[in-house]
Design a protein that fits this description.
Chain lengths: 297, 131
């Protein structure tokens, strides 16, 4: 199965481990993720102001690329898979605006005059977790060669995978999609009350103390619930919960550390794939001592 | 007691138009404020900012709150009146930013920070907080 895949900027730099583990695991499930020949920035944040048309052009131009890939026979259908929560949210919401608002649709299409044809609105935006759910969790568990037995994983969703209500990949109040995947991988799922709390997002640039405080509260709750490790699906959450632990320790010296990894890394591990695919060496703090102790690597 | 003054109508209507939200529906239950992850950094609680916009008070534009909002939409999920508070915050930010105001400046970051921060952090930060 060939499916279009929109990586976005961060998957090519600080989140290479997210991409490597995704491409390798998807291949194991018979899914060939195909990157468009060219793509541009998704805009990172959805244009919320009602008169803002300009910021819908960039995300929708990426969806036009997917329509072109289908026309050229490079992919099986007009679906595009994303990994980053911000890409997912911006592409999906702009696509919805395009469908719902005739005036904005017209203006966006007029601004694509240098394209062979403007975007037609036929693409479906999916997060990888949704594609896995479509495949069926049995298919995922059927491919597991090294169940993550005894590994207590706390799934962390954050904001943009689920909100605003109705735009996310699962129930905004009580999501189970990441839990379902982790169970399919043989892990022990740890529920904790802050799994939907915001990590502070882009304020990590100028307000790192405030973000460290939020991250501390999230990680502390995961620890108290008994988690060995946190699973995430967003490169910004990963940064705020992972590398930002150095900032947390300045304010809460007794915090210690808690490994944070992408759900796809755990999938690659459970599928028995090698270091190049799991890519745990790129995570801070390093999850490998824990995984070695549990006999998983 | 504060009450709505007709001369404040233009500001209130502008916020309604830009946000697309029916801010008059808010009855001050405070669910948005209680779920907001950033209140400790704010001067006015989100529910207070909504009240200020109902009254058409332009002071809402001077509030630190509108810049501290992370647009995580926790308030949107909680609001029993169906108001997307994050949209109102964006409308208020937009009104200030369109006067060529920059809340943050990339030049304040060190080379190390620029190297280490994920691009999505920098791009979204600039998108939300600069003109």
């Amino acid at each position: 199965m060939k499916v279009a895949y929109y990586p976005g900027c961060t998957l090519k730099t600080t989140a290479k481990n997210f991409e490597a583990s995704t491409l390798a695991s998807a291949k194991e499930l018979g899914i060939d993720l195909v990157e468009p020949g060219r793509w541009n920035c998704c805009g990172t944040v959805h244009a919320l102001a009602k008169d803002d048309v300009m910021h819908h052009i960039a995300p929708l131009r990426n969806l036009l690329r997917v329509e072109e890939m289908k026309a050229e026979g490079k992919v099986d259908d007009k679906k595009v898979v994303t990994l980053c929560a911000m890409c997912y949210n911006t592409l999906k919401r702009s696509n919805q605006v395009f469908k719902d608002d005739a005036d904005k649709r017209k203006k966006v299409q007029e601004n694509m005059e240098n394209e062979a044809a403007p975007y037609g609105g036929s693409v479906e935006v999916l997060h990888l977790l949704e594609l896995l759910r479509e495949q069926g969790w049995d298919k995922v568990s059927g491919r597991v060669t090294k169940p993550l037995k005894g590994l207590k994983v706390a799934p962390y969703y954050g904001c943009l995978l689920l909100r605003p209500r109705g735009t996310g990949l699962d129930d905004a109040d009580n999501p189970t999609i990441m839990e379902d995947l982790l169970k399919a991988l043989g892990a022990e799922v740890v529920d904790f009350p802050y799994k939907l709390k915001c990590c502070g997002s882009y304020h990590t640039v100028q307000m790192k103390e405030a973000v460290a405080d939020l991250s501390y509260r999230i990680l502390d709750q995961a620890k108290r619930a008994g988690a060995d490790i946190v699973a995430t699906a967003c490169p910004l959450c990963e940064y705020n919960l992972g590398p930002r632990q150095a900032e947390i320790r300045k304010h809460y010296p007794s915090f210690g550390a808690l490994p944070v990894v992408y759900f796809t890394q755990l999938m690659a591990l459970a599928f028995g794939l090698g270091d190049e695919s799991t890519a745990f060496g790129a995570n801070t703090p390093d999850p490998r001592p824990l995984l070695k102790e549990r006999g998983l690597i | 007691m504060l009450s709505f003054k007709p001369e404040n109508r233009a500001f209130r209507d502008k916020v309604k138009e830009l946000s697309g939200e029916k801010i008059d529906l808010c009855f001050q239950c405070g669910a948005c404020s209680s779920g907001c992850p950033m209140t400790q950094e704010m001067d006015y609680l989100p529910s207070k900012v909504i009240r200020m916009t109902q009254l058409g008070l332009e002071e809402a534009l001077d509030s630190k709150t509108i810049w501290v909002c992370t647009t995580c939409f926790n308030c949107e999920v909680r609001c029993p009146r169906g108001i997307d508070i994050a949209n109102v915050m964006e409308a208020l930010r937009t009104m200030v930013l369109r006067k060529k105001y920059n809340r943050v400046n990339l030049e304040d970051l060190t080379a190390e920070e620029l190297r280490e921060l994920p691009q999505i952090a920098i791009v979204s930060n600039q998108r939300k907080l600069t003109a």
